[in-house]
C-alpha cells in the first residue's frame, strides 16, 4: 500500500456499502480526494453526494480517476468488476475494505469484535464506553450509531481503532488485535464455510493473530467457543495472551433482550482488558444510556397504533432472540413478524432451524428470499420462501415487498408490535409503513 501520507486520491467501488462509506469518510477527513461508484443509488450514496463526494451510479472502467493512488472495494463487488479490472491493469493498488483498514491501522492498538451475532452492537457499545471514559477512539462499525457524527464512523485517534471484524470471507483476519472479542460462534455464511470445522478454524486463526500480551474476550456460555479457546490455551499462554471468559449479567439497558445483555457484558470486559483504569461505573452509565443502533431492534415509528421495529437479523438464532426481545418488551402485544430470508444457500443449510423459530411468531408474513448478487448458485434455486412456509405450516407468503406491505396494512391492529426483519431490502417496508 502507498504510504497514507502519499495517498492523494482514492476511488471506492461499492461506495454505498456500510463499511466502504466509512473508509471513504475517514480518508476524506485526512485530506484525501475520494470518488466512488455503486451499482444503484440509495440513501447512503445520496448522503455521500450531499457531503461532496463524487459518486457515479453504475460501474465502468472510465470511473477510475487517471490519478488514483488506491482503489478500495466492498465485498458485494464481484472480482470481475470493470473498475477493479481497470485498476489492476493500470497497476493501481486494490484493497478490500477490511484489508485497507488493517493496513492503515497496522501500528495502532486494535479492539476487534467478531462472532456470528451481535458484532455491530458490541462494537458500538465499546466505542461508547471508551468515549465516556475520556478516550478518543476511531470506531468503524457496520451500522449507524446515534452520537457518531458520520453514523458508521467515529473519527478519533490514529493509534486506537475499534472495529467490527466480519467473519464473511475471513475479513477479520485482516486485523492484528490487541483485544479480540469473540461474541459467539454458530455456523453461518455456508457458501464460504460449508462445515462448522472450517468456520471454527477461521476464528482459531483470529485468536492466533492477537498481539503478544493482548487479550481474547470470549463468551463462556458458547460451548463451541469454549472448545476452541481450550484448544488454543497453551499457544496463547506462550505469547502472554490473556483469555477472559465472560458470562451474561443483567444490567439496566435501554435495548431489550438477552443478546444485548450479553453484548454489554462483552463490551465492558473488552474495555477493562484494554483500559483497566476506566471506572466500571462509567461503563455501566454509558451502557444504560446506550440508545441502540440502526436496524438492530430499531423502533422506526408507528402504523395504525402499532410499534414498528426494523431489525437486520437474518440467522435463525437472531430471529429467535429478536422475537423473545419483542415479547419481553411488549408482553401484552401480538407479535407480527415480516421476514425476508437472506440468500438461498443459507436458507437451505439452516432450513429446519428457520422452520422452528419462525413458528414462534404470532403472525408471520414470509417474503421471498433475497438473492444476494454474486453469491447465489443455480443448484440452490429450488429453495424458496413458499417451501419454507409449507414446512412451517402457518403464515402467508409475499412474493414482493409491495405485497408484504399490502398484507401488513390489512392485518396490523393497535394491539400489535410489528417486526420487519432481514438483511436484504426488507427495511423499506418498515419505513414505508410508518410514513402513512
TrEMBL record:
It is an enzyme of class 6 (ligase). InterPro entries: Mur-like_cat_sf (IPR036565), Mur_ligase_C (IPR004101), Mur_ligase_C_dom_sf (IPR036615), Mur_ligase_cen (IPR013221), Mur_ligase_N (IPR000713), MurCDEF_pg_biosynth (IPR050061), UDP-N-AcMur_Ala_ligase_MurC (IPR005758). It is found in: Cytoplasm. Residues 113-233 form the Mur ligase central domain. GO terms for molecular function: ATP binding; UDP-N-acetylmuramate-L-alanine ligase activity. Pfam families: Mur_ligase, Mur_ligase_C, Mur_ligase_M. The keyword Cell cycle applies. GO terms for biological process: cell division; cell wall organization; peptidoglycan biosynthetic process; regulation of cell shape. Keywords: ATP-binding, Cell cycle, Cell division, Cell shape, Cell wall biogenesis/degradation, Cytoplasm, Ligase, Nucleotide-binding, Peptidoglycan synthesis. Transmembrane segments: none annotated. Its main location: cytoplasm. Its EC number is 6.3.2.8. It catalyses: UDP-N-acetyl-alpha-D-muramate + L-alanine + ATP = UDP-N-acetyl-alpha-D-muramoyl-L-alanine + ADP + phosphate + H(+). Residues 295-424 form the Mur ligase C-terminal domain. The keyword Iron-sulfur does not apply. Pathway: Cell wall biogenesis; peptidoglycan biosynthesis. GO terms for cellular component: cytoplasm. Residues 10-107 form the Mur ligase N-terminal catalytic domain. This is UDP-N-acetylmuramate--L-alanine ligase.
